[in-house]
Amino acid sequence: MDSSSSFTPPSEGGAEECFLARVALPCLVAPLALPTPAVAHASDRGHVLLLPTGYYLIGGAFAVAVSFLVLALLPAAALDRFCRRRLPLFTLGDSARTAISLISFAGFAILVAAGLFGSRDPLSNPLPLVIWTLLWAGITLLQGVFGDLWSWLNPWVGPWRLVSRLVGTGDEAPWRLPGWLGCWPAVILFLAFAWFELVDPAPDDPARLACAAGLYWLLTFLAMLAFGYRGWSRSGEFLTIFFSMVARFAPAERDENGWLALCWPAAQLLAAEPLPPGGIAFLLLALSSVSFDGLSKTFFWLGLFGVNPLEFPGRTAVIGSGSLGLVLTFAMLTAVFLLAVWLGQRLAGGGPPLGQAAGLLVWSIVSIALAYHVAHYLTALLVDGQYALASLSDPFALGWNLFGTADLQVEAGIVAGAESAWWLWNIQAGAIILGHVLAVLVAHGFAWRLHPQPGRAALSQFPLTLLMIAYTVFGLWLLATPTVG
Q1: What's the pTM value of the predicted model, to 2 decimals?
Q2: What residues contact 143, with CB distance under 8 A and at least 6 apart?
Q3: How far apart are CA 154 and CA 307, in angstroms?
Q4: Per residue in 223-278, pLDDT tens?
Q5: Helix 454-480 to helix 365-392 angle, to the nearest 10 degrees?
Q6: E strand or H helix at 130, and its extent?
Q7: Which of 350, 373, 349, 292 is nearest to 325 (CA)?
C-alpha cells in the first residue's frame, strides 16, 4: 500500500478553477459557519453535557447534500485540474530512515519493559498512554496532516535491515506470499486489534498490553524476515497499511524520486488505483470500528442489552455484546456500502464491474474515517496526552525526571466547562461534516473515471451520497447522545 503517487508540477488554472474557488468552495463550507450555540459531551470518560444539536444535524446533512449538487454541476476537468496542482518543496532522502527506526525500536523496547515492570496505574505507566493516545490517536492525525511519517517511525524497518544484512539476505525474502492472499491477514489482525481495544476487559493494563504489543512486534518481525519487509508490510502489518492509507489524505506528498510537494487535502486519494476485496474490507473495518467505539458507550446501545448505563457493571459484563456489535457494525457498513455502489451502477446504466467500482469509491472512506478519528479521540489527546508527557519522564516510577515533565500538572479542565465543551463540539462536528464533504468530492472524482458522461457519473453517486448524509447524521448523533465512561 504505497502512499505515494505520481508527481505533477503545478499548472495554471482556468475558468473552471475560478468557478470552484468562487462558487463551489463557499457553498461547501457555508453551513459550517452557522452561529448556532450547542454543547456536546466533552470527554470520553463519562462526562456528559446535553444541549440541543438538531441544527447541527440538519446543517451537516445539508452541507453534504449541497456538495453533491455543486459537484454534479461542476465540469469534470475542473476538479481534475484542481486536484493535480502541486507546489514542489525539496527532496527527502532515505538515508536516515534506518537510524530513526532503530531509535523507535529502542523506545518501544523500553516502553514494553515499563509495561512489565513499571507502575500498574494506566495513567502513570507510559505504555498504554503512548500506544492508545500518542500512537493510535496522535500519529493517525499527524499522518493525515504531514504525510507518511510512520514509514520513518515504525520499529521494524531498522531492525529488519540490520538483521538482513548480518545474515546476508539483503532485500531478498526466502518466501513470497501468494497473490490471492492480498491484505486479508491485515484485516484479521486489525479486527483482533479492534477487539482488544474495544472489547477486551483490560486493554489499558500495562502488563497485559506489554505482552500483546511485544508478541505482535516479534511475530511481525519474523514474518518480515520470512516474506520481506515490503511483502509483509503490504499484506499483514495492519498499522503500516492503515497509516499509509490515511497519509493519502495529507496535503504533503512524496513521490518516488523523493520530491516532497504540497497538494490539496485528499488530492492524493484521487490518484489511487482500485483496491482488491481485502483492501475494501480493511478500510470499511477502519471506519466501522471507530464508529462502534462511540456507539458501544451510548445509553441507547447498552439499553438494547438490558444494561443500566448509570450502574455500568464493567467491560467484562459486555464482552459478548461488544464482540457481536463490532462484527455486526462492520458487516452492516460493508453491506450498505456495496449496495449503494451497486445501485449507483444500476442508475448509471452499467459501467465497470462492482468490484472495480467499489475498489475505487471505497477510497472516499479515508476522509470519513480520519474525521471520526479526530472527533472521537480529540479529548483523549488533550487530556491523556498530558499524562503521557509526565509518564515518559519517569517510565519505571522510580522518581526520575528525564525530560523535565515528571511533575507536570495535568489540566483536565481543558475539556470541562461550557465554553470548552462548545469549542470541542464545534471542532468535532466540523471535522465530521468536512470529512463527509471531502468524501463526496473524492467519490465524484472516481465516478467520472468510472462513467465519463457527466449525467451518468452524477446518477451513480446518488445512493452513495445518501449513505454519506445518513452517516453524517449518525456521527453527529454519536457526539450529542449521552454516553457512559
Answers
A1: 0.84
A2: 149, 150, 243, 246, 247, 250
A3: 40
A4: 999 999 999 999 999 999 999 999 999 988 877 666 788 888 888 898 889 999 99
A5: 40
A6: none
A7: 292
